[in-house]
TrEMBL record:
Protein name, as recorded: Uridylate kinase
Role: Catalyzes the reversible phosphorylation of UMP to UDP.
Limits of the Aspartate/glutamate/uridylate kinase domain: 2-202
Family the UniProt entry places it in: Belongs to the UMP kinase family.
Keywords: ATP-binding, Cytoplasm, Kinase, Nucleotide-binding, Pyrimidine biosynthesis, Transferase
Binding positions (UMP): G44, D66, I114, T115, P116, A117, Q118, T119, T120
Compartment list: Cytoplasm
Main location: cytoplasm
Annotated organism of origin: Methanoculleus chikugoensis
GO biological process: 'de novo' CTP biosynthetic process; UDP biosynthetic process
InterPro entries linked to this entry: AceGlu_kinase-like_sf, Asp/Glu/Uridylate_kinase, Uridylate_kinase, Uridylate_kinase_arch/spir
Pathway: Pyrimidine metabolism; CTP biosynthesis via de novo pathway; UDP from UMP (UMPK route): step 1/1
Regulation of its activity: Inhibited by UTP.
């Protein structure tokens, strides 16, 4: 059975506690679990950035702000586990060893952040390498990787396909303050390059996009892989 690691943006899963998409994702993830082994790394989203903003206002340093952000990612992960019920391992994995151990049960494994100064995208990339994943999916709030921020620049162009080196060229130089909201951090890009695991970046605001990509091999987004390879699982 194929192994898939999903980096699930906090702004996609939990835009706010009052308007979350957990129920919508639960039904899709349960359907996907019948087709492949699933590992999910949940981000902190807007809730994490709010905590980080308050911490900075109180004089906290970046390391302390990062620790708060990690706590929020794990709270979001716990909410998803609650929604998944028996389909998920009942604990949030707090490191890669635990993720591997929990996966032995055959259930969906969910985790949040681990290391200060790394985004959950970096965590998902390292996790994908650790478990020998066949595909890494980044479910975010845009439909792929663009030449510029499409929310700010109407002339931004979406890339349909990139090599790992081209991805690194795009993300090199991005700032990595606590709560940073960028395509991927440099650690994730480097791990994707060295591991050779293909990456698919797609719009996660509609959970069905994720299901169609995995089950049908149909998607709108950006594929990052070596030229000539085909990462689709159809």
């Amino acid at each position: 059975m194929k192994k898939i690691v999903i980096s699930l943006g906090g702004s996609v899963l939990v835009p706010s506690l009052e308007s979350n998409n957990i129920d919508r994702y639960v039904s899709v993830l349960k359907k996907m679990a019948g087709k492949c082994r699933i590992f999910i790394v949940v981000g902190g989203g807007g809730e994490a950035r709010r905590y980080i903003g308050v911490a900075r206002g109180l004089g906290a340093g970046e390391a302390a702000a990062d620790e708060l952000g990690i706590m929020v990612t794990r709270l979001n992960a716990r909410l998803l586990i609650a929604g998944l019920g028996d389909a998920a391992y009942p604990r949030v994995a707090e490191n890669y060893t635990e993720a591997l151990e929990f996966a032995e049960t055959g259930k969906i494994v969910v985790m949040g952040g681990i290391t200060p100064a790394q985004t959950t995208d970096a965590v998902s990339a390292v996790l994908a390498e650790s478990v020998g994943a066949d595909l890494l999916i980044n479910a975010t709030s845009v439909d792929g990787i663009y030449s510029a921020d499409p929310k700010k620049d109407p002339g931004a162009v979406r890339y349909e396909r990139l090599t790992p080196q081209e991805l690194l060229d795009i993300i090199t130089g991005s700032r990595m303050d606590a709560g940073a909201n960028i395509v991927l951090d440099i650690v994730a890009g480097k791990v994707i390059e060295r591991s050779g695991i293909p990456l698919l970046v797609l719009d996660g605001r509609d959970p069905e996009n994720l299901c169609r990509a995995v089950v049908e091999g149909a998607f709108v987004g950006t594929v990052v892989c070596e030229e000539g390879s085909n990462p689709l699982l159809s």
